[in-house]
């Protein structure tokens, strides 16, 4: 069997890997083994945080709606009343109304209360 030297392929894979870790601190941006480990960890974190982002936004929408409600009605009672009245506006849209067009939000609140 002939001998295969993998110089070109090894350099290419190393260069591609180091390109991914450009901007990382210390040896993680220059050393091959540390860079490989950094890439694996970054991938797992990005996967987990894509899931977390959805939860973070839902919390933000809740805070915006609750702030717009003020002292009129509690958030949980408002959402319960929305469900009872069969008003199917999701939290994202309600938060948009609360922040950018309060008059529309007040109309929805008047329908619910």
Describe it.
It is a single chain. With 113 residues, the protein is mainly alpha-helical. It has a single domain (9-112), classed as c-terminal domain of poly(a) binding protein (Orthogonal Bundle). The protein is 73% helix and 0% strand. It contains five helices and no strands. It has helices at 7-20, 32-69, 75-84, 91-100, 102-112. It starts with 6 loop residues before the first helix and ends with a helix. The model has no long low-confidence stretch (mean pLDDT 95).
Shape: rod-shaped
**How many discrete domains?**
1
Low-confidence stretches: none
Oligomeric state of the chains in view: single chain
Q: Into which percentage range does the β-strand content fall?
A: under 5%
The description of the largest β-sheet is: none
The third-level CATH topology is c-terminal domain of poly(a) binding protein
Radius of gyration: 26 Å
Average the pLDDT over all residues and give the rounded result.
95
Structural class assignment: mainly alpha
Name some characteristics of this structure.
single chain, 113 residues, mainly alpha, c-terminal domain of poly(a) binding protein, 5 helices, 73% helix
